[in-house]
Amino acid sequence: MHPYRTHTCNDLRAEHAGQTVKLSGWIFRKRDHGGILFIDLRDHYGQTQVVVHPSRSFFEELTHIKLESVATFVGRVTLRDAATANPEIPSGAVEMVADACEVQSVSEQTPLYLAGEEDIAEEVRLKYRFLDLRRASLHQNILLRSQVIAHLRRQMTAQGFNEFQTPILTCSSPEGARDYLVPSRVHPGKFYALPQAPQLFKQLLMVAGFDRYFQIAPCFRDEDARADRSPGEFYQLDMEMSFVTQDEVFRVVEEVLYSTFTTFSKLAVDAAPWRRIPYREAMLKYGSDKPDLRIPFEMCDVTGIFRDSGFNAFAGAIKTGAVVRAIPVKGIKNQPRSFFDKLVEHAKSLGSKGLAYLIWDGDTIKGPIQKFLKPAELSALAGTGSMQDGDVMFFVCDEPGKAARISGDIRGKLGRDLGLIEKGVFRFCWIVDFPMYELDPETSAVAFSHNPFSMPQGGMEALEKTPPLDILAYQYDVVCNGVELSSGAIRNHRPDIMFKAFALAGYPQEEVEAKFSGLLNAFRYGAPPHGGIAPGVDRIVMLLAGAENIREVIAFPMNQKAQDLMMGAPSSVTEKQLRELHIQLRSQPKPPPQA
Questions:
Q1: Span 156-214, pLDDT tens digits
Q2: Which of 477, 429, 484, 433 is nearest to 274 (CA)?
Q3: CB-based contact 456:501 (threshold 8 Å)
Q4: Does the N terminus or the C terminus of the chain have fewer Cβ atoms within 10 A?
């Protein structure tokens, strides 16, 4: 017989009754029923109930042993009667009656209670992550992650992609976030950078003629944590394709993600082709370039209706460049006054001066601003929002960017608070036609809006003949349920177009040559038109697992302060290590003396 097990804790069924088997695992729960000890033995695969009678020599030891100790049992499989069977687990029809036991290792009292799903402070969970990972929900999330990654690899290979690995030690890049820098021992004063993304290398693979590349790529960015972003590192399904249009990139992503979401979730998934929403339309209707399409209402622009109205708070602001966004919501007139008051306070917390609203109640229209509006203006608002009895229209007035941000936040809050978010579905969309340029808010100079290496729509002709702020780029995001899964672009593969694009943003040719010489040099030797995208693996798994925090689908995440509490990173290093790297630390300023 095997030294540890003949079966896993999930294997045993009714047909095994009468057999002698060996199981190993963790002592998950213990119950003493009238002198008989019942143990739930757990391993990676599941659980089995083990019965220990008091006549056994190991009974006393097991009575006092701590939970999460590891033990091996030998015994007979017996059927449980109908009253004691456990239909919640696959092995619940049987139990093992133990004849022998060997304790493999004894656990101390655990700082986490693992037999339940109650809330535990995240600091404790991350410090003892190896224990936290034994909890059923988190254990299943990490298994799901493994299965999703294996499925993504199969899908990409089936689509004709080849997997290549790109360097981890590379040069600092202009991706937008802060780099993690690695000092060089053999090149004093110089540094490698961990890649924010394999962007330049995957483009170089296209120049090298590989046509279709993918990688489950680790990426490193020194940025703050969010619920959908882990500090330090993350993984993405990185891909690039040669001789493709934007439509072909969309087709591949839709097929791969549709297959993944339908394979690993029972929720409904939007069939391809997914809705395409131009960036400016998304900002108008949803106040965000990652809209949650499960919320059943869209915003609209009513600036023109208020421009010459008697509501001076709006009319005066419009004269100085403000816009008015309306949020029409159906059938909520019966909300208490406190609901509206709290929403106004929420808007103020976002930086708004307030939140106006109108209520359609039968043949009358009520609300704080009703008296300032003419019947024709009220009628125009009703027509714009298709307002009927029971509906409410909220209004935000501010400069365009701020109005979009505030109204988009309020749209999301209304969807959540009113329980209007559609359940049981994954709603996908593409955000397309991003502006190539925007005005820098501090200098008012023309600057790149997003990825400077994207191909402008219209190519060189657009750069030469179209006002910069009107130029659109072949850039796109894929969004699911309000979560941005990825950004991508058709790349600018021509040096002449690249120099012109950067010149419009104030970069002289010699600066572009100096910063991006590796890529430009490759493009001078024949670069194919190419494009790609990189859906985030962590976010995909987070959605599939129904998790609210990305740390719930990462085996060993950092905390929100970018610390690994389990391993003690980041940590100090020795003076010898610093000398080898030619680094000298500045002394930290002393705190001022206490008064």
A1: 999 999 999 999 999 887 556 789 999 999 999 999 999 999 999 999 999 999 999 99
A2: 429
A3: yes
A4: C
Torsion of CA 104, 105, 109, 112, to 10 degrees: -80
35 exposed, middle or buried (CB, 10 Å; 0-12, 13-18, 19+)?
exposed
CA distances from 190 to 181, 185, 193, 540 (A): 10, 9, 10, 37
| pLDDT tens for each residue of 115-130 | 876 778 999 999 999 9
Condensed to tens digits (0 to 9), the pLDDT of residues 76-95 reads 999 999 999 999 999 999 99
| CB contact set of 117 (below 8 Å; sequence gap of 6+) | 135, 136, 137
C-beta of residue 254 within 8 angstroms of C-beta of residue 485: no
Cα(first)–Cα(last) distance of the chain, in Å?
74
CA angle 394, 395, 399 (to 5 degrees): 150
The sheet with strand 323-329 has its strands ordered as 300-301, 323-329, 392-398, 356-361, 364-366
List helix spans (H) across 355-486: 375-385, 400-417, 459-465
Query: What whole-number distance in Å separates Cα of residue 437 and Cα of residue 506?
Result: 11
User: What is the token pair recorded at 303?
Assistant: 């600036």
Residues near 535 by beta carbon (within 8 Å), at least 6 away in sequence: 236, 237, 253, 257, 478, 485, 486
User: Helix, strand, coil % (nearest 5) of the chain?
Assistant: 30, 25, 40
| Ramachandran area for residue 47 (φ above 0: left; ψ -120 to 50: alpha; else beta) | beta
Q: State both tokens at 92.
A: 């619940």
Neighbours of 579 (CB within 10 A): 10
List Cα–Cα distances, 146 to 142, 150, 166, 478, in angstroms. Answer: 6, 6, 21, 22
Q: How far apart are CA 258 and CA 133, in angstroms?
A: 29
